[in-house]
Amino acid sequence: MNGDICMQKHRDLTLKRLQTFQKLLESKIYTKAMPVELSHFAAPGRIKVEEAMHAQYQTVTLGTRFQPFWSTHWFKVHSIIPNDWEGQEVHFLWDSSSEACIWVDGQPKQGLTGSNNGYSDDPVRSAFPVVLKATGGEVVNLMVEAAMNNFFGISTSDPRKNEGIGWLRQAELAIFDRNVWNIYWDYVIVADMARYLPQDSPRAGQALFAANQMVNTIDWDDLTSFQLAREIAAEFLSQTNGEGQHRLSVLGHAHIDTAWLWPIAETKRKCVRTFSSALNLMESYPQFRFVCSQAQQLNWIKLEYPALYQRIQKKVRAGQFIPAGGTWVEPDTNVPNGESLVRQFLYGQKFFDQEFGAISEIFWEPDVFGYSAALPQIMRLAGVKYFLTQKLSWNEFNKPIRHSFLWEGLDGSRVLAHFPPVDTYNSLATVKEVLFNVKNYQDHERSKESILLYGYGDGGGGPSVEMLEQIARMGNVDGLPLVEHRSPQDFFERLEHDLKDPTVWVGELYFENHRGTYTSQAAVKLGNRRCEEKLHDVEFLSSLAMLFSKSPYPFEELLELWQQVLTNQFHDILPGSSIAEVYQDAKAVYKEVLANGDQLRKKALKSLLKESEGYTLVNTLGCRRLEVIPLPEGSSGQQVIDTGEILGVVEIGPYQLQPLETTKKQENRIVQIIEDQHGFTLENDFVQVKINMNGQITSLIEKTNHRQCIAIHEFANQFVLYEDLPYDYDAWNADIYYAEKIKHRPVANQIRIVESGPLRVKIALEMKVGKESTLKQTISLTAISTQIDFETWVEWQESHSFLRVLFPLNLRSSFATYETQYGWVQRPTHYNTSFDLAQFEVPAQRWADFSEPDFGISLLNNCKYGYACHGSVLSLSLLRAPKDPDPNADMGAHHFSYALWPHALTPQLSTVWWQAAQFNQPLQFVKGLPVQNDLQLFMVNAPNIILDTIKAAEDGDGIVIRMVEVAGIHTKSVLYWKNEFLLVETCDLLERKLESVAHSGKKLEIDFKPFEIISLHFHAD
Ligand SMILES: [Zn+2]
Prior knowledge:
Bound molecules: zinc ion
Number of domains: 6
Largest sheet: 9 strands, antiparallel
CATH architecture of the largest domain: Alpha-Beta Barrel
Distance between the termini: 92 Å
CATH superfamily of the largest domain: Glycoside hydrolase 38, N terminal domain
Shape: elongated
Strand content: 25-35%
CATH topology of the largest domain: 7-stranded beta/alpha barrel
Strand order of the largest sheet: 34-35-36-37-46-43-42-39-40
Oligomer: single chain
Structural class: alpha+beta
């Protein structure tokens, strides 16, 4: 051994030496550079390239700052490669401290991401290869479209973060030294292994020696030394693994939030930048695979950037660009209802199938705030058997104890789930992350396989050359896992084969974080709920019109409306975690969907009704209904109210249209209200309710079962305003400590009777809430039900406050029950374990229920999603006031309702599902009489079998209906229908035939398993 170059044994100092040398090496990748001619056009908005090509440009210099934030600036770049650059690889280098895109001949070629990008101070993608081997004298003409925002938009909470955005720092041509580049990445891998392998491992020592030897070998003036240094690296990196090594499938990916800290309009450009960059990389790195989820994003490219879309289709055929995920967007799964989740898959898979010839077997949801227990069945019925996320690594209380397991849903359906162990979907594919991936993997005893998702994400970006160079060197190196580019389908098939004795996780994958997202941005939740109902109604009425009146079914219009609603279910729109502009867009979408939905409803009704003097009552739900409703002007009824309207009782069958007059019933039962000095007593045959002058319920006696429902000495309908100051993630998080600090307990300052029976009694109250807000409420009870309704209007002007309404109940149970999509889940009412404690706030659909085995109380809502039940206090989350990322989130007027429904039997057996449906969708009448007397399609004989959807079949042939068992009971049911159908088949959620069904006459016996979803296709006659 030559003593002069003997490695000195001081690990830390040697590592510092390696770091210093690495920076020097990096600085030599580009040798010569020259400025380009640059001219600039400040665009009026996000314009087309054609418009930008013909605009007026003016000369501009480096150092200029382009503003305002969110503005678009186009640049024309002109240069001639010098003759003495002959033979060199030439790159264009650009840094506008913002996002940008290179255009050549009117086509997007590659995204660029400058400094101050949210990931780092330095640019993460600044180079665009112009020519691999210059001849000298080539004319370079490019266009750059720069968007004055970074990956993460513009910070709304910390303006200092934005100070660096929009500065033009670099615009030049430069010679790229591929020799140095290659050595640099060899060196990075070896040095990182020295740094990040366990210090006491043989390979860490060997790596330290090899990297240090490379430093000693490289002589900047002697090109042969470069070759010697590469040989040192090659020798080290060629030492391979044993057969037992972990196998890591690396998947290129860009998590592009469909909207978040930027509006949808910017997302489309993020897609262009990201997809064009990925396509470029595919040319240089044939092994590279890029996974792309969210049909909506690909559809935007198809419609608005057709040439880019063609390039994508070509690479899909080549197996490099891989559409995956199966859904329209990556949706939130707490708030959308069951049919919405179905449509996410139906329209997502349909798009993938039509455009790329195959559906996806993988549900791709890396970044969603909790996963409904309904999903495994919905996935299975939509052709999906694999599930990927990593979000639960963010759990605050309990980190996932498995990374590869079977996930079993409500009905027992199972899918194979994998959580990439690196705990991010935005890995940079470094040695450090690859090693952490293996160390963190919880299932080594069961499988050798795991996934690493690499690529800049959230705001798009995707994989970079730096990532690919590192992966290229990590294939089979002793000390690292086996690293291979693989498609997600390949990965899951390998995992399925390899996973031994898998563990099973049963039920929801509750996310122990971001619990404020059940409540933030109330208007988007309200909009989503009303649109889901509207589309449900329109589909039923249009089906009826198609069958009874031969009216054409509005396929295209409905598809477009559904797609708009589904897009807004994206996991940062519906949860309420986006910027203000996103919610302005969402509001406009809901307004349009509701208006267009109304038009379609009217059109369907027009063909079902004849113009005449009378009215028709329309029941769009699958249950028989008996309700008190306001009747049309001039009708005879039983109670005149202060609006001048007349109340009457009507009764109608499921999914039925009937002349209003034939549905009216003379009601003999009455409801009364008495006022005394303590408050009000509301009483009918079923309940007696006492309300104090504060507007709180002090007693609620259910008379049939002789039950006092309210906890003794407690007050129900009790409003509490808490301080709501999350330590992080303002709009996302309601932290466990919020309940410790009460700011205000608002009570009524005015209260009076507004309706006195006999069909309905109602009191109205007003109160101040907090410092600036007011709340008005009516509390009503009809003669025919135990249900107490609370209709509420709030003018909300609070800051970092959480308004909840509490119902301390005289019941005892260790769990409460909450509606989830197509069923229910139970969650603890105590904090015994960290898992119980973590669920201090939980999502639900339209109801939560707190019951003993023979009696209970449901709390219904018409647009809310956050509940809690601790001890015996059931509560509903009403409003929050986060200030980031939307400083005005939830400020202004709100109108919502909730209801308390005491009932015998448990919710599984009761009709709480229907009770909540009716509460959300009050009966409506329309002018005109039905074209025939009995406009009704289907009926089911079991109350727990919900006929939830009636729609035209996607293939245009007949009707598809969806039925669900929602009580958790094996059930024998009979479905009846009235029309002639040629053929009945069961089908999956994509409406693919499962099997033919033999039926006798116009009825069909169907056996349901608990929570089973069954879709039937009735072919037209
Ligand atoms: Zn996301």
